[in-house]
Amino acid sequence: MYLDLKERSRFLSNARFMSILSIVAALFLVVGCGGGGGAGGEEESVPSAALPSAPPVNTPAEDLPASPGSLSIQPEGARLPVGGQQHFSATDTLPDSEGIESDVAWRIEEGEAGGSITNDGIYTAPARPGTYHLIATSRSDEARWAATEVTVISQGAIRVQPAARFLGPGGKARFSAEVTETPDKTFFWSVREQEGGAITEEGEYTAPTAAGTYHVTATGRSDPSLKGEAAVTVSSLLPKGIACSASPRQPYLAWVSSQSAVIAWRCSPGGTVRWGLGEERNEALPDRTVQDQHFALLSDLTPETTYSYEVEIDGERFGPVATFTTAPAQGSESSFIAFADSGTGSVHQKRLAEVMKSRSFDFALIAGDVIYDKGADSEYDRGYFHPYAGLIDRLPFFPVPGNHDIVTDGGKPFKQNFYLPRGNFYYDFFWGETHVIGLDSNKVADPAQKRWLETALKAPARWKIVYFHHPAFSSAEYGDTPSVQLHWVPLFEQYGVDLVFNGHAHGYERTVPINGVTYVVTGGGGAPLYPVGRNERTVISSATHEFVSVDVTADTLVLKAIDITGAVIDTFQINRPE
């Protein structure tokens, strides 16, 4: 029979106490009997060196000095992963046998919960992390023993799939979990938040009705410190029956021409566009990819014709029904807006968006810095999709990148969220007889872009409009852009460009016609404003949040700069030469 640590401590303390009493009694007899000096007897005494140095009886067992014949366990204070193994040995500490391995019996104070150990001292850690105690007792003398602590740590992992899910109120999703690097592969499910929904033992999760972000958790049964989580975002934008694997973006127009349109959305790999003339929507275009982002091309459309569309996922409508009108193939009458430096999610951007919604136009040009601060995908909802909701599902917006848009992965999120016909950041399109050319001014000196630009400018058109981010001419803080003046301005002048829109300088400025070309900086789209300046080229400059509206006819371009209140702060007309 072996004693536990507390019992052993009491046993040793009582043994020492009884030993002390025996010694005291012996001294009393010796001193007491001889102290009277019996007739003819010699006085006997006990040398003080023979008295044992005993501790007080109330000294805790762990504070007792090591007794002769005690043992030492090596290694001390071991740390092991769950299920890990370690060989332990016990050695004598007596001077004449110090370091010699002793024949001991091993046990674990916590019993089976603390793991297991063989007669040879090979210890196997349990599946549950914690602190456990190994005890070695001499087989020849049970009074000789030693103990050491073992700390068991977890090196396992639990991976929950999918890692993120987006659901509508009351929506459902199924989760699974994989447990690695630990002997016990079992786990249980829970939801971290008290009102975060419910999950079954099989991983079937039901979302709450309240919008928010919640966390599904898988916890190791034998090791509660082992956890894996998945985030669930409940959005009122999603119907109950749709589960998205990426942050959902409801359907929007990514491109419109006279004979085609591109419907974009983001949710999960599957989806179908139902579309048709007017309100019929009797055509179906399945769009199943390996990606969550979709660009579904509707082709063979009729110019200047109105169509309606909707997107279905798993048989349920994703987003509202919307309409769009294709571009005219001929003619010049149209209207559009232009702006830049918008995507901050600021109150100024949102107010300008509301003013835009109150006006009638056919398309929009965005001259860069569509998304602040770094053009990251996580910034797109705040900087683009939310402010312009209600516009971008029925009207095409044509953006080109600014310097902020390419900070993240060289502009990869820009290409993921916007439709670029050739995969480049520069492209062109016709709206009737108006030729619109968008450029990437982050790479002005790119010879391929310059060759493409010259080819595009040679195409015949009644009006030629170019837009890009960095201004050729500006009196504001950043000033002119010499590379644009060197590489592009001569082409604008050579091929008869009528109007150029830019951003980068956060404010509004219009120049006089420079060799026949009018330059407009419309950088007041929502970002913080910069001080403006004036020089000999400036007609008007204003540090204000604004966008520009342009009405196009066969003979005129009528430009109006509109501020955050809807007031017109500048008007200008370009007449087509006879």
Automatic annotation (TrEMBL):
Protein source organism: Candidatus Manganitrophus noduliformans
Task: Using the record's annotation, list all stretches that form the Calcineurin-like phosphoesterase domain.
Answer: 351-508
Q: Which Pfam families match?
A: Metallophos, Pur_ac_phosph_N
GO molecular function list = acid phosphatase activity; metal ion binding
Keywords for the protein's UniProt record, in alphabetical order: Signal
Where in this protein does the record put region Disordered? Answer: 39-72
| InterPro entries registered for this protein in UniProt | Calcineurin-like_PHP, Metallo-depent_PP-like, PAPs-like, PAPs_N, Purple_acid_Pase-like_N
| Protein name, entry field | Calcineurin-like phosphoesterase domain-containing protein
**Transmembrane intervals:** none
Domain Purple acid phosphatase N-terminal, first and last residues per copy: 248-326
